[in-house]
Write a structure and sequence with these properties.
Strand order of the largest sheet: 7-6-5-4-3-2-1-8-9-10
Shape: globular
Radius of gyration: 20 Å
Helix content: 25-40%
Structural class: alpha/beta
Number of helices: 13
Low-confidence stretches: 1-7
Largest sheet: 10 strands, mixed
Strand content: 15-25%
Number of strands: 12
Length: 380
């Protein structure tokens, strides 16, 4: 979800660990439960919550601190839990501007939840994969039933209470076939900020074919650039424009380095990234170390540098590297010309897409340079 990245570092909090009320077919996080076999409860206790809050606010060098709650399913903890979290944020706030974002599957939302979000200015991310027949193919509950109707009810409540929300859509081998209808569906349901997340791992029949993903993004872009610039925001398009201008992309995927966006689990364990929650990438525990010390560990610095240092030769010669930046290291699973498995699975799709949008990005960047609206691209 859009976490409005700020200078310094960011922590993604998984206060329920991998615990979730859904059983999505493609979810990579449910398997993390085995990593915490000693846990008696998949809930961040008050002591850990307080230490996390105090250290995160105190060590954040910027004037803004963004708490990002995800999971698992963070609403399983109940409203009172987040009231406690807000109380601790006020206690240790130090005059900083504190924001809260929460990523949810939307199935447990109620009027009370949505009023709480509205009253406390939460930004909500809703996971939805498209219309019912598409969404319910993979996003199932523990009983094997589709979750679409409950998600739509949750979105209706968010709109009723005027809660700011955006959508996250996992692009898989099914919904990749209908890019424009899917895009229009999300717009019609009130999503002003849209994130498309390509399903790569695990590589199987659910995974999105790389070239089709590039074609998907291209089709959506062609629709967006005709009539929606400045009205609807698609994260991948925003990141491309940022890279064209020469400012941070706003999302780690398309930055040249990573390593400043770490993850904390329910028991206080801290990991290099929420896509690398495993023994090899454990940095420590918040009960025993500061975020600053963990971020400055040689292993974490190496993790961040490897995004560029481990690029395959193809990337160094690629004319769209400025947009792609090698994307996420977790997707570098193909063998490059040097024989190493460090070429991004989505490479061919991204080349197709970024080469297509390049002229438009250059036009919009020039408009911004001359203090004109990038939305003028719709009238060129």
């Amino acid at each position: 979800m859009d976490t409005h990245l700020i200078p310094g570092f960011n922590v993604l909090a998984n206060p329920t660990g991998p615990l979730c009320n859904l059983n999505c077919s493609y979810c990579y996080y449910l398997e993390k439960e085995a990593l915490f076999c000693d846990s008696k409860s998949f809930a961040m206790d008050t002591s850990t919550l307080e230490i996390f809050t105090r250290k995160y606010i105190h060590e954040q060098p910027g004037k803004q601190v963004n708490f990002v709650w995800q999971g698992g399913e963070p609403t399983l903890l109940g409203i009172d839990y987040y009231k406690t979290a807000l109380s601790l944020q006020r206690k240790y706030g130090q005059g900083k501007e504190i924001m809260n974002s929460l990523q949810t599957n939307g199935t447990l939302l109620t009027d009370a939840w949505c009023q709480f979000f509205k009253d406390n200015n939460f930004l909500i991310g809703i996971s939805i994969d498209g219309p019912e027949e598409v969404h319910d193919r993979y996003r199932l509950d523990k009983g094997g039933k589709g979750s679409f109707k409950k998600v739509m009810h949750g979105m209706k409540l968010l709109k009723k209470h005027g809660v700011e929300f955006n959508t996250l859509t996992v692009i898989n081998s099914l919904n990749v076939e209908n890019p424009v209808p899917l895009y229009n569906f999300l717009k019609e349901e009130g999503s002003g900020f849209i994130q498309f997340i390509p399903l790569v791992y695990p590589l199987n029949s659910w995974s999105v074919p790389a070239v089709k993903f590039g074609q998907f993004l291209t089709a959506v872009f062609d629709e967006w650039v005709k009539r929606d610039v400045g009205k609807y925001f698609v994260q991948t398009f925003d990141a491309a424009l940022a890279n064209e201008i020469g400012v941070p992309a706003g999302v780690c995927l398309f930055n040249g380095q990573c390593g400043n966006c770490i993850a904390i689990e329910h028991n206080g364990d801290v990991f290099s990234c929420d896509h690398f929650v495993d023994i090899a990438h454990k940095l420590g525990n918040i009960h025993h170390a500061s975020f600053k010390n963990m971020l400055e560990m040689s292993s974490q610095k190496r993790f961040g540098d490897e995004k560029f240092d481990d690029l395959p030769e193809e990337c160094h010669r690629c004319n769209v590297y400025n947009y792609c930046r090698g994307e996420c290291p977790k997707n570098r699973v193909l063998k490059g010309i040097n024989g190493k498995n460090n070429l991004n699975y989505l490479c061919e799709g991204y080349k197709l897409f970024f080469r297509h949008i390049g002229p438009y990005m250059k036009f919009m960047a020039n408009e911004i340079l001359h203090q004109r609206s990038p939305a003028n691209v719709m009238y060129r």
